[in-house]
């Protein structure tokens, strides 16, 4: 699977690269101590709620073509959701 019509970079490669950048970003700020499964799940739920709030009162048509300001907020919330998803798997440990 590839992303976009021009690029031929596999999606997995792009996601791995993004995940690495996000983890380095958190490591530089010493956030790892806060990245427990509980904290990440709670943060993810909060960010998902913020994403839903951007769509709450839009019509189906408006949700497919939001105005530029709304689209910017939606993209920001999607980035926040992705950030917590990327940090979640490494924090889980088996007993």
TrEMBL record:
<dbReference type="InterPro" id="IPR025984">
    <property type="entry name" value="DCTPP"/>
</dbReference>
<protein>
    <recommendedName>
        <fullName>Nucleotide pyrophosphohydrolase</fullName>
    </recommendedName>
</protein>
<dbReference type="InterPro" id="IPR052555">
    <property type="entry name" value="dCTP_Pyrophosphatase"/>
</dbReference>
